[in-house]
Amino acid sequence: MNRGWLPLVLLAMLVVLATSLFLYRPSPEPQTPSLSVERALGGEAEAQEGYARATEHRAFRFPEDHGPHPDYRNEWWYITGNLDAPQRRPFGFQLTLFRIALASELQMAEPTPSAWRSRQVYMGHLALTDVEDERFFSEERFARGAAGLAGAQTSPLRVWLEEWRIEAPGPSTFPLHLQAGGDGFRIDLQLERGKPVVLQGDRGLSQKSAEPGNASYYYSLTRMPAAGEITIGEERWPVRGQAWLDREWSTSALGPDQVGWDWFALQFADGRELMFYRLRLRDGATDPLSAGTLVGPEGDVTRLTADEVSIAELAHWESPRSGIRYPSRWHLRIPKADLSLEVRPRIPDQELDHTVTYWEGAVQVDGTAAGRSIAGRGYVELTGYDSAPGKKGKKGVGVIFGHE
Amino acid sequence: MIPLLWRSSLRYHSTRPWQLLLAILGITLGVAVVTAVDLANESARRAFALSVEATAGKATHQIGAGETTLPESLYLELRLGGLRPSAPVVEGYLSVSGRSFRLLGIDPFAEAPFRNYLEIAGGGRSDLAALLTRPGAVLMAAETAEALQLERGAHFSARVGGRVRLLELAGFLPATDLVERRAQEGLLVADIATTQELLGLQGRLSRIDLILPDADPRSLAQIEAGLPPGVRVERAAARVEVMEQMTRAFSINLTALSLLALVVGMFLIYNTMTFSVIQRRPLIGTLRALGTSQAEIFRLVGTEALMLGVIGTALGLLLGMGLAGVLVRLVTRTINDLYFVLDVTGVFLTPLSLLKGVALGLAATLIAALKPALDATRTPPRQVMSRSFLETHYRQGALHSGAVGLLLLLFGALLLALPGDSLMVGFAALAAFIFGFAFAVPQITLVLMGALQQLVGQRAGFLLRLAVRGLSASVSRTGIAIAALSVAIAATIGMGIMIDSFRQTVAQWLEHYLQADIYISALDDPAVTPLPEHLVSTVRQAPGVHHVSTYWQVEVDSDVGPIELAVLQLAPESDRGYHFKSGERQRAVRQFHEGALLVSEPFAFHHRVEVGDHIELLTPKGSRSFPVAGIFYHYGTSRGTVQMARAVYLRHWREAEVSSLGVYVEPESDVEQVVNGLRRALEQEALEIRSNRGLREASLQIFDRTFAITAVLRLLAMLIAFVGVISALMALQLERSREFGILRATGMTPAELWRMVTAQTGLMGLTAGLLAIPLGLVLALVLILVINRRAFGWSLLVEIPPGVVFEGVLLAIVAALLAGLVPARRMAATPPAEALREE
Questions:
Q1: Are strands B231-235 and B61-65 parallel, antiparallel or unpaired?
Q2: Nearest chain B Cα to A403, which residue?
Q3: Is the ipTM of this complex over 0.95?
Q4: Full-prediction pTM beyond 0.80?
């Protein structure tokens, strides 16, 4: 028995060997030092290098300016409208195509051979509001501005993101053909020439924050007769109504203190339109650079400054999806034009919860103009409410547009 | 009564710890090898499935062409036509710091339904912008970046298609769980534009991923109807199935070889248990006389065996898991060399593999212990039973078992004579030979020892005579030990001969197959990396160059599944390289130039193709039928290869790259000079320029790498054999302490005793080693002529290297001598009186 320890030792060695083999992991191969170069394009200031900026007045030319301006970082074709099916069944729609440059021409390396290489990305948002059944549909799409997947061209005007299209029939812009479909819904509309182009801001230069160049070129087509067809599931409705086109392009817009905006685009039964955007500051106040226009029946434009419009929020709605709390009813007063308006969403839930979470929906307007009652319809956009503290919302528009 | 029974067992074994340890070691090693091989096989399979999963994501179907790529216009057409979810994919390989990576090129905007590599939450816009706009921007797993010591934004070089390209780490892949991280270790993700540019695949896609609802054959048919000829929709899982099919023979072979190790382990258990039963016969007789039932005795021996099995199996699993780490790298090597690119970074501890190890370990132990346990129950309830009677009885047993062995051997031969080429039948024959031989060994030993006694006669010293007599007198134990040893050694001899024959065959084949004087290819993935376009004409015009042959390889779909098609432009001298197994050379080569195919031997074997048959290949213009003009010997791949003349390929596919060149030097030029000239002229390119001899040597190096796994298994079998020899013989000698005590008491000096023991163990080792030679040869022949042919379709020359045989015998003798060392020394040091005392 005195030799009994030897096998035990061997046994123990076997266990140790097995365990160490089991635990053995080869160490990574020796590395060649990485060619760590200072990132050429680090800071935010350099990120704007090579882009054109909206610093001065420009001469707008149409139809050329309906087309893309690729030297600016961001650009959008923003079409909204209120439509009616027979028996006055109301619908609202939104088709927006955003162009976002990921790098300026200068920042791109020398041209590379792949057809997929592009510095432009297109983002599309399509939404449809079925007021009667209180249904809201929305869909988001992305594609690069290359390989025919998405793009924009001037003549004839064509902006597309895969099968979502805004197309002119030829050299003349109208009738503008809109086609886009999402999961279970689609729109197919023809927009006729309506009222003339309205240059927003100061002759189309819309200053958004104090720093020079933090501005966009901005024009609108405030009233375009629309007709076509809406499909939801298997159901189709012929529709008619009025659409609104907002066009903006810029390289930087919001300043660091601005968190978002409330945008109102209202079409009144008396032939007038009101556009007003309220830029909200971090502390909840209205930025003095907020501005708008009142367009007369013949297209005459009255500029509105921040202190000429007062907005009171009358109600709020909290999204069950994102938990974000949006204002949901407003009282707008414009003493200069003797307007007192109450703006109400046609249905509360018209939130687009995609890469960017925001509220954009059809609204109804009632009020008085110079003592007489006035009614209308329109669209309201509310952005930046997700960045309010305590909200679990995603990143705002800024993420995409690069001014986070 | 019962506790006494167990105590007696405990007491018996505690006095013979060596015996126990070695039996446990036998089963431990056997289980370890089986488990390790199974884990390695399984890990390779899982790694492949994971990498397919990682790159296929949630795709259920994939649109692909038989050819490696499809035009990107097809995707745009389908996408803009509303086919979604759909995502374009460009895939390829590159290496960073010597590690190979799969490069997955995707369109981030089409990705969301498929893969989650681009969650914007991870890094935000800057990642995406860099990924899309910077050439060379890639994403990798954070762990990989850490291992490569790269930080976000770092620039690093990679070898792609034989060129060095600068990449930028634009960000990290998000990973959620361990399995996902494992899959991402060998993965780089880049924008589709970057990937096309890196791989030189502008305008092309590897495939289009789709998600189609399960029960909707209509949409599938609809999509298929709209595809151009040559393009088809496949289930995403099909790639894993193809992989399993391709490597099946390889993994079966490994499993079979590992089972051989377990069989050797079984013999060790059998040896130990039989030994312990024989030694305890008096004790068991007493127990029976005291009323212990047969069932109780059976249970006692069975439980003892089970305990050994449990401990051995548990240790074996642990050792096997460790060993698997080594084996999995070797298995991956082989798969990379023989089949396809695969990156396996670790062992997947699949419960099934471990369970298999447990089941095999315990089953092997119990089977091995069955006969000793039954023998024990047959001990009559008498106190003492004479040893001499026992041995006489056993001699009869040896005769019987010899007869059984002969029958088994005949049965094995019969199995081989059966028509058909089932691999399983081949392995069954192999097993029959092993067991048949093992059964026959005790009888053979008796005959041999008898002959030796006659031979030694009176001339030899009494020590040698004593040693020889002792061996045949205790055949009950020596016979089994020698059987176990010779099986173990035969396994190492058989595997050794097989590997050598294979290597010799390949060496000879390379010598005549490689006809060109100089070979040029890309440094990485030489078979599939396209060479720069201008290279062919540059080389052609280089001084001293007589002719140039070109090679290109593509995957093409055919009526027999995806095949590897080699596209060759032969030089006039190339013909000589072909040795046809079937088909006449001149005619075959002429028909080859006219549009026929040449297929390699394994291909013909796997697909049962004969000269004159037709193979349908999927060309961009649809299915086309090609005749087979010849079947040639080729050991490059186990899948087999199909060769087509470049001119013929171009007629059907329109474009082809070149991945390697064979250069034939002008008769009066010096090869070295031409090589140097080419090296100078092509300095800028990342090329491998090798002389014929250099390529041959490199190929043999690859061969050795490929067969490293087999060589390791052979070494493991040798290790087990070594342990076996030591355990069996040492036990045998230790058991004889009483006998040695008598010898010492009657005047034998320690030195004489030492010599006798050494002579005896040495003789046993020699017997086992010599007996292992015929079995080893038979195993080698079955492995070469039956198993290899049936598994891979290779014709191999039989080459018996004397070294391998000698090694086997030497192993047996050295181990035997070592085994004699401990008991002899111990006995020599023990006073005779001590040894004579009853235990």
A1: antiparallel
A2: B125
A3: no
A4: no
